[in-house]
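Follow-up to my post from last week.
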Amino acid sequence: MSKRIIIDNDLLQIMLDRLCQQLIESHDTFSDSVLIALQPRGVTLGNRIQKKLSKMVKKEIPLGYLDVTFFRDDFRRNESLIKANATNVPFLIEDKKVILIDDVLYTGRTIRAAMDAMLAFGRPKKVELLSLINRKYSRDMPIQPTFVGKEVICLESEKVLVELSPQEGGKDTIWLVKK
Amino acid sequence: MSQLSVKHLLGIKDLSGKDIELILETAKHFKEVINRPIKKVPSLRDVTIANVFFENSTRTRLSFELAQKRLSADVINFSASASSVKKGETLLDTVNNILAMKVDMIVMRHASVGAPHFLAKHIKANIVNAGDGTHEHPTQALLDSFSIKEKLGTVGGKKVCIFGDILHSRVALSNIFALQKQGAEVMVCGPSTLIPKHIHELGVKVEHDIRKALLWCDVANVLRIQLERQTIKYFPTLREYSQYYGINKPLLDSLNKEIVIMHPGPINRGVELSSDVADSGHSIILNQVENGVAVRMAVLYLLAGVK
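User reply:
Got it. Predicted complex:
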């Protein structure tokens, strides 16, 4: 197994700043927009983006955590069972613009499940997807991200590993791992 | 990446501490699901479950059925009183006929000890024991542990006393196994005729004085006198039983301590519990019922995921 850095700490800060600017550009004051981070790997990214955004627009932007385990379509088809995580969406999404946040967009199946799971909290006006990494040409579903950190083309045998520190100022890196 | 070590839930005895932990952890997530505006998830969409009840039940049966429906499973119900069992069909034949209709899981209650264990040897479907005679009632014990954990934060290190008809109770035996596997101390309390002879060999304390038992415990799990299973007289009258072993408000108040009151239902009000205790703030009886659905969802979900 070998791994190499594809995005280093400095570049990643610029990328997060740019994503926040893009969100503000299309959501203005976030008056009816909410963030929903996907468990487990989108949560750290969601927290970081929410903190940054809240600072930039000078108000607290609602952030929820969504676990899609019970909505996955690979239950009973996989060898091992995926462990469930906590869902905490402390607001209704009825008529809200929802921004789903996950670290890597790969086959699109998680996002499909997330859209199903989300409907338990109301009917959103609009749903957008923010992913830090978009793995191109590997989709099983017709799903595309609205906001992308970086597009990556890699083999099925490779894995993109996002290491984000929970707080700003720590070391953040994105790796490409060869299995 | 975690799954149960067993294919069937026949009893708590066969589960490891890890299994119990996994079930309770998963149940926590399902409890959040059943408190959402939309309470249904599609996990078991292509799974068919038969509820086969050879003995009467209200809570357990409704709770299982609701759990199955919340998981989007297809459900068929069967009760022995309205079936061909009356015409002399054997247990294995009955179940094999149900399975021939492509059923993936069986939830069974039976009056005979070991009935689900016998079935597990002969059929391929997953089996969940919903109570076999006076032996085990695993999902009840799991939901009891879940409720204790929810109320007190942890089960390990707590002192739990089970009161009443221990001899005829499957809830008692399953609870003893479940609590001990999680590191709790267990005591049983009741008249000596209703305490099984060698129960101390399971590592539980035995007490006949209700006051001493209440002073010792953090949690009191009170059981019903199972008159329908008693073929001989174990105590003179219900009135006398309730006087010696009934829990009432004056008794609890005189102890000057907080005790969590649990009961698996159905309650015989005025016998083992007085109404003012059953409906008091100490009682988590209705929480137990709510948690039952979440725990059963977790059990069905985890068993369905075992290859």
